Amino acid sequence: MIVRPSSSIVALSAVLALSPGAAAAQQQTTTPRQMEAFSRNMRLNVYVEQFVAQAMQPFRQADVDMDGLDSGDLTIARRQVEARDRGARASIFMSADLDADGVVTAEERALATPPFRRLPTARAEDGVLARFDGDGDGRVTLQEALAASVPPQSPSRESVLEVFMTFDADNDGRVTAIEAETALRRIFADFDANGDGLIDFDEGVALSQAAKPVRQAATCELPRAGADQQIVAFGLYEGDAVPSATVVGQDTESTTAEVVIEEGDTPLYLVLTSYDAMIWRVTGAKDRVARLVLSSSQSDPAKKQNSPRPSAAGAVGLPAEKVTVAPHGCLGSFHEAGSAEEASVRAAIRQAAGRTPDAIAGAYDAITVTLPAMTAVKAKTSSDPDDAPAGFDPQTWRDAVRFAPGGVVEIDPAAVVSGAPAVSYEVLPQQIGLAKLVGEGAIERAGGRFRIVKPIPRLPAGLSGAHAVRFSLAPGVPRPKGASGHSCVVAEGDPKAALGRGVCLRP
Predict the structure, then answer these.
(1) Per the database record, which ranges form the EF-hand domain (predicted)?
(2) pTM for the whole thing?
(3) Distance between CA atoms of 422 and 185, rounded to whole angstroms?
(4) Nearest-5° angle of CA 327, CA 318, CA 405?
(5) 420 domain residue, yes or no
(6) Is 273 in the same domain as 364?
(7) Is 249 helix (H, G, I), strand (E, B) or coil?
(8) Are both 96 and 239 inside the same structural domain?
């Protein structure tokens, strides 16, 4: 049996509806940003009174003068968030500073998060400590820790309060409790289809289906597709080649693929998504492209987590005015047609671009994608040592092309249109980078490990999972910069002194 709202609640709703501010608010429509901010309070079998009471908690905590929410309240809330953030950074730093000398070394980081611990918090703490190392010298000072940022585990109270400010129905710079509660009731009503004041089972299912596209649309601001434009979306997990440039920093691997545009008369609104950081190379009938939207599941880790971050994606072959790099989390990525991820991307495109894609397809990996034919071609792997490029170690190259069968593609960073500035890799990522370093004589293959015999700029990015290897440092060779991923780095003569996160075995 569904319980109907009591008469007192109906009366309260009527009073709210009669107030001038409420009337103005009721004429407004709920924005994706507003829905996203309060969707966590909207769940199955929740009454409107419960929803409003829970959603109003940040408002009441911040409204210290009990006169409504204004810019002064937001300033205080912002300072509170910053103070908590500094405390979190200091706590992480001090928990790893085992000798209390004001510096966290690489050895202390390894001891603070033992390799055999599988708790997510251990891996997360080590990643945070790595981001604290501002100058990349392998040592973290308290000053570096306080200057860094900690990714928020959930939306901050400050960001929710900023959404509350959008409920200022009479535009006087102050949001009253009446204005806020009326707007929250409007948001609830958007999903209370039968108007009984309760989110029942069917409404809860509709809410869960709508939640992800709404959260994505809250961060999406994309150009609308023209009526004469064909919207074509294609997704890859990764490209089959490694670019010589990166749009995601030196410590993250990137891939690249070519996009061939077929001849035709219809202007194209292209949406290209990838899981990996990606540089798309556009060729063919490029004049057909009216708009290229790029999205990736990766983003620049150097950007502060609480600031807008672009997707780690870029393109060459088109002018900058035709390229839009979607904010991280805006569209997401997919590579399998008919999957839940594809449906989510399709819905997000409809929300952000104004229409459902006319054609959508994907593939796990490719060296070339042809559009709008929606075809993808994989690169062919060659194990012939003679196929290794000049300057690359043939044996390590054979390992490399198992992961990147398209090899290396030279890309001029100045030609890349991207959200974050493109730069050349100091050391190419993964096994491709290892093959280059061995070919240059900076690293030697010694049994099942790679022996670093000369100083190198940094470790290759992406040496995790199946890419993980074991390094040893020759005497006198400094530990390279860069993240070791799951790989192991030991100093020769002291095999117990693990300098990376990987598990080091005795030689």
Answers:
(1) 155-190
(2) 0.60
(3) 46
(4) 80
(5) no
(6) yes
(7) coil
(8) no
